[in-house]
Design brief:
The complex is a heterodimer. By secondary structure, chain A is of the alpha+beta class. Chain A has helices at residues 83-95, 194-210, 251-270, 316-325, 330-344, 351-363, 367-375, 380-391, 396-399, 403-414, 420-433, 437-443, 451-464, 466-473, 479-491, 497-508, and strands at residues 33-44, 81-82, 99-100, 106-109, 119-122, 129-130, 133-135, 141-151, 155-159, 170-174, 181-187, 223-233, 243-248, 279-283, 288-291, 304-305. Chain A has 16 helices and 16 strands. In chain B, helix 2 crosses helix 3. Chain B starts with 7 loop residues before the first helix and ends in a 7-residue tail after the last strand. The chains are: A alpha+beta, B mainly alpha. Chains A and B meet through strand 2, helix 1, strand 9 and strand 10 of A and helix 1, strand 1, helix 4 and strand 3 of B. Strand 2 of chain A pairs parallel with strand 1 (79-80) of chain B, so a sheet runs across the interface.
Chain lengths: 509, 115
């Protein structure tokens, strides 16, 4: 997989663009041409240990602290397959409607220092998961060729020069990642636009998180995407020559890289040229794909069966156990939240906003929070907004939020016992250290501002800005927000925005 | 690795019973990063040719009703629990390496050709 160093995280890519609900940049048009895209997604599995040894599978530890004779490839060491990795691979396969088959492991041989063994163990002609499909939120379906198990490679950092291989004088290698379990999910070339590729990657990420197989963190490299891109004349049935684009560290890079690559290939063909089959690297800064290998030399990995590992054939009982343990997948959970919100009504925003918020909470596994809050009477719009924005910003901590505490907080806010700003501050504290919202609010000195106190502050800011007040009186309604801002500043967020506007109204009348 | 299972060995002429040329031997040597003299290439081409010849004799047998053997041991599903075990001491590990820096293995510049 990364034998050519493509997977190296040398350039700090941009951070993850969150949420399936992000606006996809639709409407790309390539004239008479149609893109044909297939994606290969590498997903690091959330196991405690590596694929073939008991070293911790842990991101961000000091270099080379999670290494042992097996993952360093020391002579005489022998790999033993991690049962949890197999289970997670089966969960992925089941969620993607694949057949789970008897499988085996091969050695992929290459010389590159990211693997100390000089080979990577991967499933080759007999992968564990074969065939399947994934349905996108827009109703389109993308076929899955296979989803196989393999081990990740180490991380190389090229010292000197630009950080890229070219121009560096030596490289530093950290083998903490070497041997971390991966599942590689290979799609059929069913994708027809950069926007659809993004939808696929976002939906797949949501599914991987829902199965418990992945944390879905693209910015930490736990989900990495390569795109196989070709173009052909509309209506043509044969495929064009494809290029593989690597180093897609975010959904945004994926969209940009595919769009660039399609335009590049169309440009070549329109000028009468031919696209050369090659591997290309997406340069984040330039927004362009660049060829990685000058020679058209097919890598000969000399695959052969891994003699130190025996075949894998999960029996029917294990397979049904895995299938039974899978919770509902994102599509089903999105409809459940929509139905719940539809039934409760309330102040959920316009359709697009709430659909985007629903996608985000489901993708991040926060729909349980929303369900708990809404079923105990919290306004759906408020529950969705706090979950999709403030809770979601807490990252992993959000999944650990106690639904009862979340609900209690929103009830305080809905009852105006906390202003929106105060509620957000309490939620931030709950994400950091946990705790009961009422207790946190008291500790922070948050209390309801009574009407009299608020009226005094409002009077004060109005007196400080006579010009604005005059224009407001003349009907310039948007200045209400100006005064709300002033009051918030003066009260350090203790005031309630709606109460401020009500107080302004009283002053005006 | 994409879905297509390329067989570069076939392109290199490594299958079939045809005599193994010294060009193919040189290709294999390059993949293994072994430097061989012309005389050695010639000698190894003959020896590897004999091995391939033997394999092609086995290949000629009708094995239609024989189940493929993935492993000589009659075992499947050898698995371990997902329980961490202590890793090695980093200093001890790096002490075995020819060079290290900042807790990492230090390796020579990767040649452009290898990219």
């Amino acid at each position: 997989m990364t034998g050519d160093g493509a997977g190296d995280q040398v350039s700090g890519g941009e951070s993850q663009v969150s949420g399936a609900g992000d606006q996809v940049s639709g409407g790309e048009s390539y004239g008479d041409f149609e893109p044909v895209i297939g994606l290969e997604v590498h997903c690091e599995l959330r196991t405690r240990t590596k694929l073939f040894c008991g070293c911790p599978n842990s991101f961000g530890d000091a270099p080379n602290t999670n290494v042992c004779p097996v993952c360093l490839g020391l002579p005489g060491s022998l790999p033993v397959l991690n049962a949890k990795a197999v289970e997670l691979a089966m969960r992925i396969g089941t969620a993607l409607h694949c057949d789970i088959r008897p499988s085996s492991f091969h050695r992929k041989n290459y010389f590159y220092p990211d693997m100390p063994k000089d080979y990577q163990v991967s499933q080759y002609d007999e992968p564990i998961n074969v065939g399947g499909w994934l349905e996108l939120p827009d109703g389109s379906r993308v076929g899955i060729v296979r989803a196989h198990i393999e081990e990740d490679t180490g991380k190389t950092t090229h010292a000197g020069g630009t950080g890229r291989i070219h121009g560096s004088s030596y490289s530093l290698v950290d083998y903490n990642r070497a041997g971390v379990p991966l599942v590689e999910i290979v799609s059929e070339p069913d994708i027809r636009s950069a926007a659809q590729a993004r939808l696929y990657a976002a939906e797949l990420r949501a599914i991987l998180v829902a199965t418990g197989a992945s944390d879905g963190r693209m910015e930490e490299g736990s989900m990495r995407v390569d795109a196989n891109v070709s173009v052909r004349r509309r209506g043509a049935s044969e495929l064009g020559t494809r290029c593989e684009v690597k180093n897609l560290n975010s959904l945004r890079s994926l969209t940009r890289a595919i769009d660039y690559e399609v335009r590049r290939q169309v440009g070549i063909i329109e000028k009468g040229g031919a696209v050369a089959q090659e591997t290309r690297h997406f340069d984040e800064a330039q927004g362009a794909t660049v060829a990685m290998r000058s020679k058209e030399e097919a890598f000969d990995y000399r695959y052969f069966p891994e003699p130190d590992l025996v075949p894998l054939a999960p029996d029917a009982a294990w397979q049904s156990e895995v299938a039974a343990s899978l919770g509902p997948m994102p599509a089903e959970r999105r409809s459940r939240v929509s139905e719940l919100i539809g039934a409760r009504g309330g102040t959920a925003g316009d359709g697009a906003t709430s659909a985007s918020q629903i996608a985000t909470v489901v993708e991040l596994g926060l729909d349980g929070l929303v369900e708990a809050a809404v079923t105990s009477g919290v306004d759906p719009g408020l529950a969705l907004a706090r979950a999709a924005n403030e809770a979601a910003a807490g990252g992993d901590a959000a999944r650990g939020l106690d639904p009862a505490g979340f609900t209690a907080l929103l009830k305080l806010e809905a009852a105006r016992k906390l202003s929106a700003t105060q509620a957000k501050a309490v939620l931030a504290e709950m994400l950091l250290h946990g705790g009961d919202p009422a207790t946190i609010a008291r500790a922070k000195g948050f209390e309801v501002m009574d009407e009299g106190e608020l009226a005094t502050v409002v009077r004060q800011v109005v007196d400080e800005s006579p010009g604005e007040w005059h224009r407001y009186l003349e009907g310039e309604e948007k200045l209400a927000q100006f005064f709300v801002g002033k009051v918030m500043k003066a009260t350090r967020g203790r005031a309630d925005g709606k109460a401020v506007i009500a107080a302004l109204d009283r002053l005006r009348s | 690795m994409s879905a297509g299972l390329d067989q570069p060995a076939e392109r290199a002429g490594l299958t079939g019973s045809a005599a193994l040329t010294s060009e193919v031997a040189a290709y294999v040597a390059r993949l293994a990063r072994i430097e061989l003299s012309a005389g050695e290439l010639d000698r190894f081409a003959k020896q590897l040719g004999a091995v391939l010849e033997h394999a092609s004799q086995v290949n000629a047998l009708d094995t239609g009703d024989v189940e493929p053997t993935a492993h000589p041991l009659p075992l499947r599903n050898v698995l371990r629990k997902d329980e961490p075990r202590p890793s090695l001491e980093r200093d001890a590990v790096l002490a075995e390496a020819p060079a290290s820096e900042d807790g990492c293995f230090k390796v020579p510049r990767i040649l452009a050709e290898e990219r």
